[in-house]
Amino acid sequence: MATRTPRVLLRTLAGITAAFTLLLQTGCSSVFFYPDQVTYITPDRLNLEYEDVFLDTPDGETLHGWWLPAQSDPKGTVYFLHGNAQNISSHIMNVAWLPEKRYNVFLIDYRGYGRSTGAPDIEGTLHDAEAGLRWLIDRPDVQNQPLFLLGQSLGGALGTALASEWVKRGEQPPLDGVILDGTFSGFRAIAREKLGNFWLTWPLQFPLSWTITDEYEATEMIGDISPVPVMVIHSERDGIIPFHHGERLYEAAAEPKRFLQTDTPHASTFVIPGYQAAVLGFMDANGE
Are 259 and 232 in contact (CB under 8 A)? Predict the structure, then answer.
């Protein structure tokens, strides 16, 4: 036993050292992505009509998505960008209620998620988000209807960057609204915060966070979405992305904007009918 404890400690320290070395070599952008290839549920199990979509990216990846048509005369279309774990089949419940409310929905998996090819990184997933939007706007049943972007957690950060560039470039059709739910205020900002919360990584919070690009900090880009209306949603009980991130995003956004303070765990907003109604009210008001 006297020799076992030092050996276990040495192995543990060796593992930590190896992990830190890998982080220093590759940066820590991988902390944003936790994909898997498990199919948790398909839309038909939720009594939803759907279409499997496969689209190619400019850099040679193939992305998988689901098109969910509105159940009656559509009011508009929602482009959904999901959070950082699992894949669309585990996130679909966040938007499965929208077709009944007369909204089409399109959701995609980023590279490396679900049935999409490749491996995720920040630049790649940003390209994937735009590729999905470009596929969507070419659908005849989407054209001449209101178009909204809904991003949750990581998807909100990707959506903020996409929407700001879309507006600055004067892309058509214009977005009618952007909804950000449980979104962090920036890639570098949240990485530094998470690293600083753990005593083993606390000394490395600055050097490791500097390996992450600061070109896509949401607080610096959200103001460029104006004059497209923005709705920021954040829960005071969010244990993954603290509430102050939502406050920072809202403060940085330009008018017109709205803040919805919620009271659910992370990425659980739409289990509450009242929060669904608030988002529907935002879309109905800006889709006329």
Answer: yes
**Please, which pLDDT band fits residue 211 given cuts at 50, 70 and 90?**
low
Per-residue pLDDT averaged across 68-95, rounded? 97
Tell me, yes or no, whether 183 lies in a domain: yes
Q: Residue 28: phi, psi to the nearest 5?
A: -115, 25
User: How many domains does the chain fold into?
Assistant: 1
> Residues 6 or more apart from 76 whose CB is under 8 A from it?
103, 104, 145, 146, 147, 148, 176, 283, 287
Q: Can you give the CATH number for the domain in which 242 is found? A: 3.40.50.1820
> 250-263: per-residue pLDDT in tens?
999 999 999 999 99
In a domain, 17, yes or no: no
Name the amino acid, one letter, at 13: L
Percentage of the residues of the chain whose pLDDT score is greater than 90:
77
Inter-axis angle of helices 122-137 and 154-168, to 10 degrees? 60
Q: Please provide the average confidence, as pLDDT, over all residues in the chain.
A: 87
pLDDT digits (tens, 9 = 90+) for 9-52: 445 434 433 444 444 434 445 668 999 999 999 999 999 999 99
Determine contact, residues 130/149, Cβ cutoff 8 Å: no
Q: Where are the strands (E) in 194-279, listed by range?
A: 230-235, 257-262
Phi and psi based region of residue 96 (left: phi greater than 0; alpha: psi -120 to 50; beta: remaining): alpha
Residue 152 counted as domain residue: yes
Query: Is there a domain that residue 147 lies in?
Result: yes
Q: How many angstroms separate the CA atoms of 226 and 19, rounded?
A: 42
DSSP 153: T
Tell me the residue range of the domain where 205 lies.
Answer: 33-286
